[in-house]
Design a protein that fits this description.
Layout (H helix, E strand, L loop, with lengths): L2 E4 L2 E3 L7 H22 L3 H19 L7 H19 L9 H29 L2 H34 L1
Antiparallel strand pairs: 1-2
Length: 163
């Protein structure tokens, strides 16, 4: 590789880096990648900001409240996701594959749709306790799912850093 030395002179000198310099450069690249991944992982408040409105939505559904009250809550959830994505400047792909996420969503619907109907039926006997219990259950499931996903990303970052 020829290198320009100035004043229109060319030379056949080749710059070579040593093994230590190459290792430092690779470590630097890995550190930047880990930092960007860490930046993209949503903070704990985001999991709570998603779990609470989700639990409110399911509680309202169990109470058979008009859907007009649900729309602003759903909009708040969407705006929270948009805000977090823009704030992080990074959109981290889910740890699960698209197929696994679809299966999880189908499973969630298959489990929680009947629970909404049960909460509606039990509302006559137990009052607001049944829909409220459903909402609390949804909040706990959402927080646990968020924590598991977050931990999987952090574990992945640590594993990549070791390699």
């Amino acid at each position: 590789m020829e290198r320009y030395k100035g004043d229109n002179e060319m030379t056949n000198e080749i710059d070579q880096i040593g093994p230590n310099e190459a290792k430092d450069a690779l470590d630097s690249i890995n550190d930047m990648e880990s930092a960007s991944l860490r930046r993209g992982i949503p903070p704990w408040w985001f999991g709570l900001a998603m779990a609470l409105p989700a639990s409110i939505l399911f509680t309202l559904a169990g109470m058979e409240i008009s859907r007009i009250y649900m729309a602003p809550i759903f909009l708040l959830m969407v705006l929270t996701v948009v805000y977090q994505t823009r704030k992080a400047g990074v959109l981290v792909r889910p740890f699960l594959s698209k197929r696994a996420l679809i299966l999880v969503m189908v499973g969630v619907v298959a489990i929680f749709a009947p629970l909404i109907f049960v909460a509606r039926e039990l509302r006559d006997s137990f009052g607001l306790f049944a829909p409220l219990s459903l909402g609390i259950l949804i909040a706990l499931v959402a927080l646990i799912a968020f924590a598991v996903e977050r931990r999987a990303f952090l574990t992945k970052i640590k594993a990549e850093k070791v390699e």
